[in-house]
Design goal:
3-stranded mixed beta sheet; L-arginine/glycine Amidinotransferase, Chain A; binds arginine; EC 3.5.3.6; 8 helices; alpha/beta; arginine deiminase; globular
Length: about 300
């Protein structure tokens, strides 16, 4: 397989879509590794496997409609394998075998069969101390944007998934790209004040537009840099509640086609006003686990 990813929006040809099959019983509060899942565990509203399977099937149907090759992880019983985005990531023709949160380590074996189809020279493994998850890495042609956490309490934050060593190594592996990092706001307990990954508060869409949430960024100047980069008129700023509902986490299958959640009225109306076709799917149950459409997909080939 010849990988190719340069950005978030070019026409998609092949993708890994996570699976909700075998995700197992409701986790205990101690087993939760993000505050939004924790909130639903405590409230008794944690999503049911069958409902999540239906939601992901709807995404699979959209991929079929656009003739996109879909790979699914092999099902490992009692492991949550919904968020395929984080376990590996493709940049140009290279794939990075990510060092994810130890609680999620098992998930990677399930896509080993995809790695086996890739020329070994194009597989990058980073040293164990370099933590990185695909949700923190956003490609924008000559730029690689990376969400990072450099706080001294990093090791106590289950919500901090990418560290500065990983950013440094990305720079070394991709000297032709500009790697720009963004310090994210982190909270183990409050999902409204937690940007679990960069794609929870930012994503480029269409041609040169972006969805952004200011409070997800810990350093205001870094947020302002993005606003200036895209131009204020091209930015769709979302509120705290909209971030909580994961509105920045839609998924583009072309510059003029996105997959979005059926209830994201304000955002979907904006897309349509930009001339972007919106493929609407129900995804609110998946959203209870702190991830949405971008998080559950890992693109392998775009034009
Ligand atoms: N790319 C993302 N934003 N992924 C979301 C992952 C959510 C998952 N519950 C976790 O904590 O790991």
């Amino acid at each position: 397989m010849k990988l190719n990813i340069q950005n978030e929006t070019s026409r998609l040809r092949a993708v890994v879509l996570g699976t909700a099959k075998g995700s197992g019983p409701i986790p205990t509060p101690e087993e939760a590794y993000d505050p939004k899942s924790l909130e639903h565990i405590m409230a008794g509203t944690y999503p049911k496997e069958e409902d999540m399977i239906k939601e992901m099937d709807a995404v699979c149907e959209v991929f079929k409609k656009y003739d996109i090759k879909v790979y699914r992880p092999e099902v490992i019983e009692n492991v949550n394998q919904i968020f395929a985005r984080d376990i590996a990531l493709v940049i140009e023709d290279k794939i990075i075998d990510c060092n994810i949160l130890p609680d999620r380590q098992e998930e990677i074996e399930a896509i080993r069969y995809v790695f086996d189809q890739i020329d070994r020279r194009n597989i990058i493994t980073l040293p164990h101390e370099a933590h990185i998850e695909g949700g923190d890495v956003i490609l924008h042609n000559d730029y690689i944007f990376v969400g990072v956490c450099t706080r001294p309490d990093y090791k106590d934050l289950i919500t901090a998934r990418t560290n500065s060593l990983a950013v440094k190594l990305l720079r070394e592996h991709f000297p032709n790209k500009t790697v720009k990092s963004f310090e994210l706001r982190k909270s183990n307990t409050d999902p409204r004040n937690n940007a679990l990954h960069l794609d929870c508060c930012f994503q480029p869409v269409g041609n040169g537009k972006a969805i952004l949430h200011k409070n997800g960024f810990f350093i205001e100047e870094e947020y302002e840099w993005l606003v200036d980069f895209f131009g204020k008129e091209n930015v769709f700023e979302i509120t705290k509640d909209e971030m909580y509902n994961m509105k920045s986490n839609i998924f583009s299958i072309a510059p003029d086609v996105v997959i979005s959640e059926i209830n994201f009225d304000r955002l979907n109306t904006w897309f349509e006003a930009q001339g972007i076709t919106v493929e609407k799917v129900p995804y609110a149950e998946i959203g209870k686990q702190g991830g949405l459409l971008r998080c559950s997909t890992m693109p392998l080939i775009r034009d």
